[in-house]
Design brief:
alpha/beta; Rossmann fold; 12 strands
């Protein structure tokens, strides 16, 4: 196939190099493709006229839309969340969209375990006390036996659930369909969210950002959480009303928050998320390993989807634009 | 028996109350003791003339030494580390010393898992970037497969090893005798420390502070750690040369440190540990649960040791002043 790989720039952190491609292609027995690499709009314009497959990040594709790809049949996104492509009506018609779901579990597993333990230990408060040079012990119960509610039961949510379960929390997963899931102690419908929030010690957001989930955790819902509850966001910043979250942290109603995603990213220098007490921000690193490992895993997912599609099947990671994931 | 319980003050965080005593004594079937409670030196002086057993924290006992207890036969410390009693020559002669080893594992397990993950994720650097309002992602490998070296194979060290193993690290335990230990992948003699340090991604200090371990991690040994290694201290601040540690963090030679113990405690307001980059300080909270849970567990350990002693045996938690633990 004729494949074009468009990188955001030559210095972007996850730039996909010819060396990485050739190593992955050799491992997969897929060395007979014609591959081009682009780093700017000119290279993209030249390549998209011929390419049958485009590989790029959602934000890179989003920045180039709309475009025509007369021979284009499949676009593979190097991230799992494709919200940066919205509105999907801009996508070239008739082109399969495939994401790289499946490479983030190991990292999110560790991040979720860390974030839950940090909230239970009140690390954000200790970090603030440290800046004041102040020794302010709080002797608190272990996390074992507490209750985690995880919104989203895909790769991220399931990894967070395995992390919570490893630490001895009870886990409730919220999903759109009432299907059981081995990684969760129980599954509830997302429509039951309001009933589950009051029974939550730690809320983990791990679902895609879609029109159905944008602003899902609004002020009213955040106020349904018990006094002192903690919030972890590894999904997308737009899932939660950040202002309401900051108000509830300011007031001491919530115990703490660990946000790996914000809206916008990065937040402007005067944004409240930088300074709200008991709120720790990390710069969207909860799901991505180091670039070499990440790119190798991403290309492995790509080739697996390519094989399924070439064999006449549906690529396992095909995105349904109607659902948005 | 005639038992005196000396609290540091009526407002100390772990004050042992008559209600807690009576509940624990009822659970243990030990309701026929004569018990007194003291909060100040006068109460202690009056009680110690008659007491056969003294229950108090090591620092409380240390602050009262030397004293004579004509009928005293056993002292039970409500902490595990008894370094605050040093020099042991001040202890009343012929009195058994018993600590409450065994109640800290669940908490240290969680703290060690958290600290290892925080160091691998570079949380101290993100916290500093947050204070600057700066979004500075680092995409780093997962912790699974990395190497933890744990000094001390007692309750704390074993709990830290179980936490590291749960996260997929390989674990090396250092102890004074070459006996295997199920919670570690391998055991090395503490005399082999210099050979193990260069093969360490994360060093966890979890041993007692004794004349043999004071300053164990001096500058020379800290410099044996690989570039970017992380250090966790849940033992005692005096185990490590804090100045050397801060120098190596300042220079970027070490990747980060999480210190739950320092020397002194608390550090004075102008101490470097408050401000050194990539160093997180927590106020000696890694091993102690909330006071109600902690005191109930402590008294359970006390009664178990009392029973063993009354039956003519050696209390399992008897401290050997020669070893210092």
């Amino acid at each position: 196939m004729r494949i074009h790989i468009q990188n955001r720039s030559a210095s972007a952190p996850f730039v996909l190099t010819p060396a990485q491609w050739h190593a992955a292609a050799a491992r997969a027995g897929e060395t007979d493709h014609e591959v081009s690499f682009g780093f700017d709009t000119d290279a993209f314009t030249a390549a998209i006229a011929e390419a049958e497959i485009l590989i790029a990040s959602p934000s890179t594709i989003g920045s180039l839309l709309p475009f025509a790809g007369p021979r284009l049949r499949l676009m593979f996104t190097t991230a799992a969340g494709v919200d940066a492509l919205r509105p999907f009506e801009r996508l070239p018609p008739g082109v399969l969209l495939v994401n790289n779901r499946g490479v983030h579990g190991a990292k999110v597993f560790e991040y979720a375990a860390m974030a839950l333990l940090m909230l239970n230990t009140r690390i954000p408060a200790y970090a603030a006390a440290q800046r004041r040079g102040s020794w302010e012990p709080q002797f608190l119960p272990v996390i074992r036996g507490r209750r985690a509610t995880i919104i989203g039961t895909g790769d991220l949510g399931a990894a967070a659930a395995r992390a919570a379960r490893m630490l001895g929390l009870s886990t409730t997963g919220l999903r759109t369909r009432a299907l059981p899931h081995d990684d969760f102690d129980r599954i509830r419908l997302i429509a039951e969210l309001d009933a589950v929030l009051p029974e939550t010690d730690f809320l983990v957001l791990a679902c895609p950002l879609t029109p159905a989930t944008a602003g899902l955790l609004d002020r009213r819902r955040l106020e349904l959480l018990p006094q002192g509850a903690g919030v972890v966001n590894v999904g997308r910043g737009g899932l939660i009303d950040q202002d309401a979250l900051c108000d509830l942290l300011d007031a001491g109603r919530l115990g703490g928050a660990v946000l790996d995603v914000t809206t916008p990213e990065p937040p402007p220098p005067d944004h409240r998320v930088w300074t709200t007490p008991n709120l720790l921000v990390t710069p969207h690193v909860s799901a991505d390993e180091d670039p070499a490992t990440y790119n190798a895993a991403t290309l492995e997912v790509f080739f697996a989807n390519l094989r399924a599609w070439r064999d006449g099947g549906m690529p396992p990671n095909q995105v349904d634009p109607g659902r948005g994931y």
